[in-house]
Amino acid sequence: MEKQLEQLRAQIDALDEQILKLLNERAKLAQAVGHVKGGSLIYRPEREAQVLRRLSEANAGPLPNEAVRLLFQEVMSACRALERSLTVAFLGPEGTFSEAAVIKQFGHAVVRLPAESIDEVFRQVERGEAGYGVVPVENSTEGAVSRTLDLLMQTPLKVCGEVMLRVRQQLLRRADTEGGPEGLDGIERVYSHAQSLAQCHEWLNRHLPKAERIPVVSNAEAARLAAQDPKAAAVAGEVAAERYGLAIVARDIEDEPGNTTRFLVLGPEDAAPSGRDKTSLVLSAQNRPGALLDLIAPFSEAGIGLNRLESRPARSGAWEYVFFIDIDGHRSEPRVAAVLDRVRANATLFKVLGSYPVAV
Question: Domain ranges in the chain?
Fold first, then answer.
């Protein structure tokens, strides 16, 4: 058995050397692309989406597609950093799900800039303090993030990407505690944001019924407090565990396992076509019977899928609304462009927020 293990390890070592050589060859090609582009944008969401889709389709296993996507996202992130440093703003503090969304979309080789509010994320990108921003726009169980929608109406920024992040809540505590076989013994307090405590209500009832539940301003703050208290735990994400050096003693403890948050990537311009895209719009019409139908009917008539419709009160007066709509396709596609022209003619407010690749 030992001889067989040595042979297998020797083969792995040889493959690792080949992989390293190929990664550096890829990095050199990425640098060459950067020289050809000159000072133009180094982040091309449509190109990165195409790469990840192509590799997922070509993947024969045994690695799952999610692992392939994570590996190559980091490869592209490291290669991108060789061209120029990229700063991405997000709703802080560090260790939140918003930071996890940044990492999922851009990889670890970016400068992550936490902001105190969604408003500040927009401002940092508008002022050029960050190249891009990532903001939450909707949650599968809690609905739309109204502040993001309001700011999208006002900003000159474009939506150039989206991130779908499964909200996985972990129970974290200090690694040096005596937690017993399940890691739960001795926990007297559980810190987390109020929403996360609510999302894990039933799990906590079953496994830690006597522990005090203490709401704090963020899951990152909960992790920071748990790192200082051997009798405490935190409900937070894996990024918080990494940030504060905590052990994960129970994984995926949320009561609704499908809970997902959608984030938007904001930048100076929207993305070029990737082959599988969305376009986001904000529209308004006169307050009369049938006005909304007149706005959206052209999409159906052209066979263009409408996959999101969200209404918000308009600031112009009582009982008037604006509508946030996501449609299939890129604004530059002739069929989509023709329909947008028809919709524009019927709208009292018409703004294309951006076209971007569907989340991989």
Answer: 33-166, 170-250, 271-357
Model confidence at 178, in pLDDT bands (50, 70, 90)? low
Instruction: Answer whether CATH 3.40.190.10 is correct for domain 33-166.
Output: yes
- 297: tokens are 């009917």
Residues 108-128: pLDDT tens digits?
999 999 998 999 999 999 999
Whole-model pTM: value is 0.87
For residues 17 and 286, the model is more confident at 17
Q: Do 136 and 105 meet the contact criterion of CB atoms below 8 Å apart? A: no
Question: Quick one: DSSP state of residue 188?
Answer: -
Contact residues for 217 (Cβ-Cβ < 8 A; gap 6+) = 193
Can 148 be counted among the known catalytic residues? Answer: no
Note whether 170-250 and 271-357 share their fold.
no
Residue 87 known to be catalytic: no
The architecture of the domain spanning 271-357 is: 2-Layer Sandwich (3.30)
Catalytic-role residue among 177, 261, 279, 323: 261
